[in-house]
Amino acid sequence: MIDPQKLTADLVRCASVTPIEGGALVLLENLLSKAGFKCTRVDRNGISNLFARWGEKGSEKTFGFNGHTDVVPIGDEAAWTFPPFGAEEAEGWLYGRGATDMKSGVAAFAAAAIDFVADLAPNGSIIMTITGDEEADALDGTTALLDWMDAEGEEMSVCLVGEPTCPETIGDMIKIGRRGSMTAWFTVKGKQGHSAYLDRALNPMPAIAALAHRLSSHQLDQGTDHFDASTCAVTTIDTGNPATNVVPAESRMTANLRFNDLHSGDSLTSWLQSEADRITAEFGVKVEMTVKVSGEAFLTPPGDLSALVSAAVHAETGLTPELSTTGGTSDARFVKSHCPVVEFGLVGHRMHQVDERVWIDDIHALKRIYSRILRDYFA
Predict the structure, then answer these.
(1) What is the largest CA-CA distance in the chain?
(2) Distance, CA of 22 to CA of 71 (rounded, Å)
(3) What is the mean pLDDT of the chain?
(4) Could you give the residue ranges of the DSSP H alpha helices within the chain?
(5) How many Å from the N-terminal Cα to the C-terminal Cα in the chain?
(6) Which entry of 29, 56, 270, 316 is 20 to 30 Å from 21 by CA?
(7) For the segment 99-158, what is each residue's pLDDT rounded down to a tens digit?
(8) pLDDT at 241 over 90
(9) SS3 category, 312
(10) CB neighbour list of residue 289: distance below 8 Å, 6 or more residues apart
(11) SS3 for 79?
(12) What pLDDT is attached to residue 120?
């Protein structure tokens, strides 16, 4: 029997701050290979990724798991109660960067899968795709694994992403989709001049203030059956003008949008551009815009996969999990184009914090839930 608590601690001791592999994928590859998984490193552009399959390629039923071993930086090390990569245990907690997000999830599924195939040898395959590039730009992580799988003819029938999903108690929430995310950067250009001679200058400040108001006050929608209302938040306006008597030449603004499946990155880009064009026409300034779409909104409608996970959660915890689309983005946004995907993992409110930690009992509970999901899927 693989102890998920020990495996979590071993992974936490790997200082795998993106893009450093830190030994985490090497550890997993060795463990999975000994258990009969065929492992392949799918590294791209300096990012380390691991593909592991138990069973025959092309099996009719293939259960997939997606996770990551990279972690965010530790911040101020002096503020930590225990060393951030020490995996210290105290009063029922296991401390360390990545303990919650999401080395415990990877450890719980790896432990469940290894024990499962040793016990029952299912009629099908299990695939694990583990990346080292989830916490950064995610350009060469799960996307690299999916590109490689497509080229090699490797397919998952369904996929479970092990991100922390539960707000308060393990078992209280499953993610069946995520809002889309995009960022827009605006530069409003006027003409610098003396504030006493406004007729000789073109002040970009009223224009950028109007643009900020229009974007932040506009109601994109009222939400859907599965999604909250889409939002547009102005996150910064930067002019860098220390002089009180000088009209600046330009000012910059950033807006972040979280959107549901009523919109796409393209449709919202068109809306943003139309608002920028209105400002140009009304104020006579020049507005330049660049956009980055981090992920499109997606939904895995409630069905067999969410019912499978919900039943396992209920059987092990007694809770009926909420099916939700709240929160930020995850690598499920890439997997959804490959196969049906849902997310389920631990309580996530301590991730990315100083003294990040996981309740040790929850690690064992998560392994039991994952084990039941595998048993029920292959039953």
Answers:
(1) 83
(2) 10
(3) 97
(4) 4-12, 24-34, 104-120, 142-152, 204-217, 265-283, 304-317, 332-335, 360-378
(5) 21
(6) 56
(7) 999 999 999 999 999 999 999 888 999 999 999 999 998 999 999 999 999 999 999 999
(8) yes
(9) helix
(10) 184, 185, 186, 187, 272, 273, 276
(11) helix
(12) 86
* Amino acid making up residue 189: K
Q: 21 an active-site residue?
A: no
Model confidence pLDDT, tens digit, residues 286-342 = 999 999 999 999 999 999 999 999 999 999 999 999 999 998 889 999 999 999 999
228: which 2 tokens? 């909250």
How is residue 26 written in tokens? 């090497």
All residues at 6 or more sequence positions from 19 whose CB lies less than 8 Å from its CB, including other chains: 46, 47, 48, 70, 132, 133, 136
Q: What residues pair up with 247 in beta bridges, in sequence order?
A: 193
Give the model's pLDDT for residue 328: 86
CB 66 within 8 A of CB 162: yes
The 8-class DSSP code of residue 301 comes to -
Residue 11 to residue 8: CA distance in whole angstroms: 5
How far lies 218's CA from each of 186, 211, 213, in Å? Answer: 17, 11, 8
Confirm if 48 and 134 have CB atoms less than 8 A apart. Answer: no
Identify whether the C-beta of residue 374 lies closer than 8 Å to the C-beta of residue 126: yes
Is 130 in a helix, a strand, or coil?
strand
Tell me, yes or no, if 316 is annotated catalytic.
Answer: no
Catalytic-labelled residue, pool 29, 70, 275, 362: 70
Instruction: Say if residues 264 and 244 touch (Cβ distance below 8 Å).
Output: no
Give residue 25's identity as a one-letter amino acid code. L
Would you state the structure tokens that stand for residue 299, as one six-digit string?
A: 């939904």
What would the DSSP string read from start to end of 148-181?
A: HHHHHT---SEEEE----BSSSTTSEEE-EE-EE
Choice among 134, 135, 140, 343 that is catalytic: 134
DSSP string for residues in 221-286: ----SSSPPPEEEEEEEE-----SSEE-SEEEEEEEEEE-TT--HHHHHHHHHHHHHHHHHHH--E
